[in-house]
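Appendix B. Chain record.
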Amino acid sequence: MEQGGLVKAYLLDGNGGGIRIGWQEVEQWQAGDALLWLHLDYSHPFVRQWLKERKGLDYLVVDNLLSEDSRPRCTPFHAGLLMGLRGVNLNPGADPEDMVAIRLWIDEHCVISTGKRNLTSIDDMQWAIEQGEGPGSPGEFLARVFEYVMNRIGDVVEDFEETFDGLEEQLMAEESNVMRPVLSTLRRQIIELRRYLAPQREALGHLQISKIVWLEDVDRMRLREVADRLVRYVEELDSVRDSSIVLHEELISRLSEQINKRMYALSLVATIFMPLSFLTGLLGVNLGGIPGADSKWGFLVFVGMILGVFVVQLLYLKKMKWI
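Structure tokens predicted for this chain:
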């Protein structure tokens, strides 16, 4: 339950566990106590006012924590670190590519994260702390956040690959009538997801070379592993996107081929019936002097002539290998 914009708050014991606290304990906390983690709803009026009045937070840090539009970033600032991350949106009824932003301020004493929509990776962090398997230091907290975000992104990328494999199987089975909207949706989702993963990759790369005193070597190793996973995910998305373009071209080719076959059949029908229509139209006018008008055999002769023209046309089309 949110209490005045406080979504989650924990005092970490340094051994993986932590105690959940409320606003009263937050106000009593001081630097030098146990590591504090706050996750706040930045849209709540009380949170906005509290951050602006919080001692020890630079106004630039507060502005970034309260920013409406936050892109992936990594900015060392004094003894702390400003981070902007994007995680996949796994909320009910939402599209995964509609990524959820999280803003982080981390120093050696506390971690403040802000967001508006629920991010599953933050729930993963809460679960780990309550199970006694959470982070014990600011550097480990940062590495864990990245790992949880990458785990969820990896699941979505895997789903994209499975969806694309299913589309390929449908194309092989010539079930292409419903594939175009699905393929278009898949390509749009990949483009939207990659749009945020690429700058996130750059932020991770910048983080690894930043001089941050509380970021230990083991944390840098974990972040390097996360960065490698992110690069792999981006490459997999690029591969699926490129393959989807090829699949789309193949789909268009098959649809064009089907249309051409139908147009070809209609052209043959028109070719066959055009001279027959001409003859019936010519001899069907109500004017005197029509040949065979006074003969009882005139109609039979005309029908025989029509059949003869029809047979000659079929033989000609067959000789020309049009049918």
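Further analysis of this model is presented in Appendix C.
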